[in-house]
């Protein structure tokens, strides 16, 4: 009986992932890695460690692991520079908005990748969530 | 007991040294300093002493005639933005540390009895007695105010000439003056409106209060971002190191390979005369073609020179994205003859080489004769990053930023990662 419960949970999680993302979490992370390398890596660096004072790190910060909507909004709309504060350190470079360059699926994939890489562990971001927020911010 | 005695002595010395001018931040024994055995590599005959550690974001620095080192911080330490380091026993290590000035910034310089320091929008000065290193904090005057500070490239580095003028870098808050900064495909603004108030060097009077753009002179333009600059007293001219633009490979993969994007454009050393236009944002120096060319945002194709033909040419070019943050012309007698009147440049290391390995994190030397380079540049001090290749800048242990010359001819180097200060000396 004890073994059945975890198996059920896994089944439910797997099913819900499959419903949300084509190919599930693994596939989303793999696709997201490609997006990251093409669009994000130059500034945030191959290991997500960013650049002191310039480009914020993506490792275990509340910006990455916290509110998915706030994170997605940053990707869609960009930042002027200076808004991100991590333990009193500010980051000066602007973040270019990606709303006209990346699809809902690409944004969902890259955020899922970032939230599950560089030592991060957090829930997935779905294309539906990005789509809803994109519509709301229009 | 010994420790207690030593501490008491240190405190007494510190109290004497800083009785009149400073709020005490922290007094520490030399034992604390040596725990950080920072191994930087130097040419034969040179050795380094760690003067201080853990100052935080230690940007530029300057040394008074008595040997006291003043460091400008980009992040307040115990509420202070300028740190004074005093070596009481002459072993090179700071025995007493104190601070003043409640603003962050980069620039700091001593000239004719005044200590000048900058925030990211203003320039202040204080009376200093160089014989004792005593600063009269109450004498603080704001001499320049209201300069552009829009996050990106906001360091206001300082240099003074011998005619009562101060030179302030105002970096452009932009990569290449695109309509939408750092957005792929966005065209360059032409003319670039940023150049009216930034992207150049401004000249002000060193002794006049509350000057801003109306009182200043745009001494040189077309400089994206300068952090390292110095007045060369041998030829009486200003020299500046420009940080070149980013994203050539990411925005123009049809023109630049990934490796070419890491090596381009050059980080450039300019010898500046009044009225110089060094070309940003219209032009960049292509290390592959060894020529100043039109930027792709302005129709460039890695061949067109166009309007760049008339721009001021740099006198030394370095590989891309090394981030030159400190420039110093060496005028001392302690180092061997070849170093006299030559330039030391501190390269901070940067980011736009990724996924190619990051580089920089060293201090280089360029030999000079009569104000012009007389040989190839060479690495002088290295080993700051703590890694050989492949790592990200965020993993660098130290990042060289400021350079200063001590009265005994030693070279002082700052690191703005943790706030380590080294003093480099030579003996046969």
Description of the molecule:
- The complex is a heterodimer of chains A (138) and B (428).
- Chain A is built from six helices and two strands; from the N terminus they run ααααββαα.
- Chain A has helices spanning 4-20, 24-44, 62-65, 68-77, 104-115, 127-137; strands at residues 85-86, 89-90.
- In chain A, strands 1-2 form a two-stranded antiparallel ribbon.
- In chain A, β1 and β2 (89-90) form a beta hairpin.
- In chain A, α2 crosses α5 and α4 crosses α6 (127-137).
- Chain B is mainly beta and 428 residues long.
- Chain B has a single domain (27-426), classed as Neuraminidase.
- Chain B contains four helices and 30 strands.
- Chain B has helices at residues 2-17, 30-34, 248-251, 258-263, and strands spanning 23-26, 46-52, 58-63, 69-77, 80-86, 96-100, 108-111, 114-118, 123-129, 134-144, 158-160, 165-170, 200-205, 217-221, 226-232, 237-242, 267-272, 276-277, 283-286, 291-294, 316-318, 324-329, 343-347, 362-366, 368-369, 372-373, 378-381, 400-405, 411-415, 421-426.
- In chain B, a hairpin with a 4-residue loop joins β19 (283-286) and β20.
- The chains are: A mainly alpha (138), B mainly beta (428).
- Chains A and B meet through α2 and β2 of A and loops of B.
